[in-house]
Amino acid sequence: MITKRFFKTKDEVEVTFQWPQGDSNITTVSLSGDFNDWQATPLKLNRQKVFTTKIRLPKEQSFQFRYLLNDEVWENDHAADEYVPNGLGSDNSVVKTYAPVEA
After folding, report:
1. Which pLDDT band holds residue 56 (cuts at 50, 70, 90)?
2. 3-state DSSP call for residue 89?
3. Strands, DSSP E only, in 7-103?
4. Distance CA 65, CA 36 (A)
5. By mean pLDDT, which of 29-38, 52-61, 94-103 is the weakest?
6. Which residues form the AMP-activated protein kinase glycogen-binding domain (predicted)?
7. What is the distance between the alpha carbons of residues 21 and 15, in angstroms, rounded to a whole number?
8. 27 to each of 53, 54, 65, how far by Cα in Å?
9. Which domains can be identified in the chain, with CATH numbers?
């Protein structure tokens, strides 16, 4: 799951990335994307049994990312803004930091 927090006075967006542990055997979750040169950033498991991390990203851009579960299985975020082919036979998740249009 992805949530976004837009700041009125900053040119960045705080994006919270979350992956539920559920009843599975998931012990580690890392986040890799073009915003961190595809280096694995570990998510922390909270009391609600959800792995989470917050990253500030520049506004008005799109970023590709994936989750790495237990250091071996790649997964996409089901709440991603879109998906794009990654050239490896699967897709990458995309998060967009465009400000919402006000009515």
Report:
1. very high
2. coil
3. 12-20, 29-33, 41-42, 44-45, 50-58, 62-69, 73-75, 82-85, 91-96
4. 9
5. 94-103
6. 13-93
7. 19
8. 15, 19, 20
9. 2-96 (2.60.40.10)
Using the structure block, give the residue that is written with the tokens 């851009």.
61
Single-letter residue type at 69: L
Q: List, in sequence order, every residue forming a beta bridge with 30; answer none if it has no partner.
A: 42, 68
Q: 95 has which bridge partners?
A: 63
Per-residue pLDDT tens digits for 65-93: 999 999 999 999 999 999 999 989 999 99
Inform me whether the pLDDT recorded for 57 exceeds 60.
Answer: yes
Q: Which helix (H) or strand (E) holds 7?
A: none
SS3 50: strand
Alpha helices in 1-103 (DSSP H): none
Nearest to 32 by CA among 92, 101, 102: 92
Q: Rounded to 5 degrees, what are φ and ψ at 35?
A: -80, -15
